[in-house]
Amino acid sequence: MTVPGLLIVISGPSGTGKGTICKSLLKRRPDIFLSVSATTRLPRAGETDGKEYHFKDKTDFEAMLARDEFLEWAPVYDNYYGTPKTPVDEALAQGRDVLLEIDIKGALKVKQKAPDGIYIFVIPPSMEALRARITGRGTDSMEVITKRLGKSMEELSHLHEYNYVVVNDILEEAVDKVECIIVAESSRTNRYRIQRDAGPEAPLLADKLS
Fold it and tell me: How far apart are the C-alpha atoms of 70 and 47, rounded to whole Å?
């Protein structure tokens, strides 16, 4: 039997560069399945259904909610956002590793349903670096920047609810660390059992322990 893939959840405060880490990781590891969220907001210019998001109307989204088809979901202003379960479950069953890049609240909701996933928390090298990244966007007022920094401090308090922390100082090194985590987790002994009763030509390692 195929050993199920790993569920890899990456999140962290805004401005830590988690999205950039995920994009770089997928370039190195195109075999990893990227989970695409569903939303009821309208597509923006250049966005494609199924790539940036699965675009749904509210009736369809609420029907999916009624059928318990989301790993996590949340209302954001006048729209819904959520992570559909079926594509994730199918990819994992096929032995593919699955990557979720979601916010901290969403990640902790996923952890309640999938506690065996790999939860990676991305942080900046310092608060000064985080401030520089947020202010470097050049689009926000000081009031907005102050609120974002305050929210980031609150979000950092969730660090110990994750399995791993990755400091994103130098991007390539941060991606290296995430790759090392994936390799180590895929080699854990509790993912396998010895096939004792098969013939001499059978593989030594069998399906994942349940």
Answer: 22
pLDDT tens track for 41-97: 999 999 999 999 999 999 999 999 999 999 999 999 899 999 999 999 999 999 999
* Residue in this structure with the two tokens 């999140």, named with its chain if needed: 11
How far apart CA 110 and CA 104 sit, in angstroms, is 10
Alpha carbon separation from 143 to 16, 35, 128, 138, 153 (Å, rounded): 19, 34, 17, 13, 16
Q: What average pLDDT does this structure show over 160-182?
A: 97
Here the contacts of 138-142 (C-beta below 8 Å, separation 24 or greater) are: none
Please name the residues in contact with 202: beta carbons below 8 A apart, sequence gap of 6 or more. 195
CA distances from 101 to 38, 57, 112, 142, 172 (A): 13, 23, 16, 27, 18
Say which residues have a Cβ less than 8 Å from residue 75's Cβ, sequence separation at least 6.
none
Which domains are assigned to the chain? 1-32+97-210 (3.40.50.300), 36-94 (3.30.63.10)
Hey, what amino acid is at 99? L
